[in-house]
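Request: Give me one sample?
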Amino acid sequence: CMLTYIDTHMHTHMHVCMLARSRCFDRFIVACILLNCVALAIERPERSALEETVTYTTHVVLTLIFWAEMLVKCVWYGPTMYARNAFNKVDTAVNLVSGADLPVYGHMYSM
C-alpha cells in the first residue's frame, strides 16, 4: 500500500517536473500574461453587464492559471529553491495580491 503511494507520488512529481520544463508551458504562461495585460488595458469605469462578466471571468481564470504555475514551479524547484529566485518572489507577491483581490473584485461585480 505504501509502495503504491510512493510510486504514484513519484510518477506525479515526474509529470509536474516535465510540465515545468516544457516550452509549451512557458509559452502558454507568456500568452496568459499578454492576455492579462490586454484585459487590464481595456478595463474602464463604465462597462456593460457583458463586459463585467467577461472581465471578472478572465480575472478569475488567469489568477487560477498563475497560481497553478506557481505551484508547478514550487514542486519542480522545491519550496526553498523556488523562494531564492527574485523573479519567483515577485511572482508570488503578485499572485498573493491578485488572489486577495478576487473577493473584492467579486463583491464589486455582484453590486
Remarks:
- The chain has a mean pLDDT of 82.
